[in-house]
């Protein structure tokens, strides 16, 4: 038993699921297919873990205890129903994936010590597309990866050992993921050739592993591939030679990988090639690729992370937050039906606090997906604890008001993509506690109505301990962690005070005079980005009227986003009765104290959590304390020096 490696599939880590042996000893499988075979393997593995034996296969349900698998179309794609009775446990799925999801659901909850009477459940996925994006490179590095090397590639090629990938496929399908893009959206030279004959057989092996678990494989492609691979002089999407190259490419890919999902494309973004070079728009670019994939049922997932990364900080008219909407909103209705736009949750870039992207709900005639970042690029890099489900949930629950009250983001999208936090580390996610984010992402996009607390609790009980009291403590730590991280990093939604490029640790002015469009505009009187229509960049006008007014009006603007929308004096009075500057001091002092409390709470669990877990996480909590102190002191000193205003509580601020 290796709990770090097993993550939340640690069947038999304690006695919790002993009661299931009676059922698991006889499997009655009334359906078939490659995904059903994986479901059966999982049940066999669980039984093997518990008893060391192999279950018996029976063809008729028996009354003395058996586990039945069957399909019932009425449950819908990916839906399932688990029913537990004295005689049997039946998992019915709407399709093969549904059966697999139901089996995993049962095993995860049972191993977390949830009692039999709570396990009769019917669920179905909210979105048809539930995707994971790897930012893995062929050389084995992972862009923004904090968990070791790539598990997909090494030395310029796909890996050949499929054990780790099979276990990854198990983890992902166990939370309902049904698509994965295995290479970085920044497609460099070697990866450009993934879609060619020399590498497709290896990619096909990986695709097969994931297909066994109901997960479709996608590839990120280089928009300039016809030039780089075929030596064409152009990648113009309207050029006949270009179109025909992509058609041949698609044809060839599907010969190798019949269940191929499609292409993920980062175009005209951060110096990547795209249709703009040829005076074409994103719809023309995306539709050309979509036409090549269409005969095979493939999709194009086109990213909306498009902005000018060469702005002059002196220019106060350009606002990076406006870019995605400005680029894509005019194209609503112009995309082919197998194109999905992938929109980052916020308009900037995965900060700990941002407004929700105004594109959600603004493109009613386009297929949209929401992109979340599971890997903690700006949110602690799997050193500082930061459970992200509450943040993602806020986004999915955000009312866009496009189409009237109740137009939640979750009703405006067809799915989500999450940038993976996984690598070659034993525990997969660098910090073993960051497993909660991977698990939580899958669960939340399966059912956005779930609470962040419930998801955290399920994960803790399955992955660490079924002991309720201990699980409760860890769960509380997780659920409070986002607020803690936020409180000692940049204040009130302003963002970007991180060390440039690396993005861990504080550097208040690191990006202030850079070309990236990420500024806080602090001066002796105040700080924040004025994005109002009245006096600022006019970004607020990208929202539906209800939200526009809320953000435009400083007294209606949610406090946590004040400096995202407004430039305010340090003496501005918050609803708490504190001035802005006092809020900054308080929140940074408190944040650093709470980071210390996290370590204390973790230490109090020393005897109650598996030793390896304990050690890995403890190390990180120690580093988090260092980090939070540095943030506290740098930010407080910086704003003291700017404003000259003392902390009314007279705490230590370095002058
Ligand atoms: O957040 C930024 C990252 C880049 C990333 C880019 C993107 C993959 O710093 O590393 O590139 O976003 O989302 O395309």
Structural description of this entry:
The protein is an alpha/beta fold. The chain folds into three domains: 3-122, 2-Layer Sandwich (Chitobiase, domain 2), CATH 3.30.379.10; 129-450, Glycosidases (TIM Barrel, Alpha-Beta Barrel); 466-529 and 567-655, Alpha-d-glucuronidase, C-terminal Domain, CATH 3.90.1330.10. 36% of the residues lie in helices and 11% in strands. It contains 20 helices and 18 strands. The protein has an eight-stranded parallel beta barrel with strand order 7-10-11-12-13-14-15-16. Strands 2-1-3-5-4-6 form a six-stranded mixed beta sheet. It is globular, with a radius of gyration of 25 Å. The model has no long low-confidence stretch (mean pLDDT 97). 4-O-methyl-beta-D-glucopyranuronic acid binds next to loops.
Summarize the SSE layout with pairings:
Elements: H1 3-6, H2 21-24, E1 26-29, H3 34-51, E2 56-58, E3 66-71, E4 80-84, E5 88-93, H4 96-111, E6 121-123, E7 129-133, E8 153-154, E9 157-158, H5 163-173, E10 179-181, H6 189-192, H7 200-212, E11 216-220, H8 225-228, H9 240-256, E12 262-265, H10 282-293, E13 299-303, H11 323-328, E14 339-344, E15 367-373, H12 389-397, H13 409-412, E16 415-419, H14 435-446, H15 452-463, H16 468-488, E17 526-527, H17 545-552, H18 562-565, E18 568-569, H19 580-603, H20 611-643
Parallel strand pairs: 1-2, 1-3, 3-5, 7-10, 7-16, 10-11, 11-12, 12-13, 13-14, 14-15, 15-16
Antiparallel strand pairs: 4-5, 4-6, 8-9, 17-18
Helix pairs in contact: 3-4, 9-10, 14-15, 15-16, 16-19, 19-20
4-O-methyl-beta-D-glucopyranuronic acid (GCW) binds at residues 135, 143-144, 185-186, 266, 270, 305, 349-350, 377.
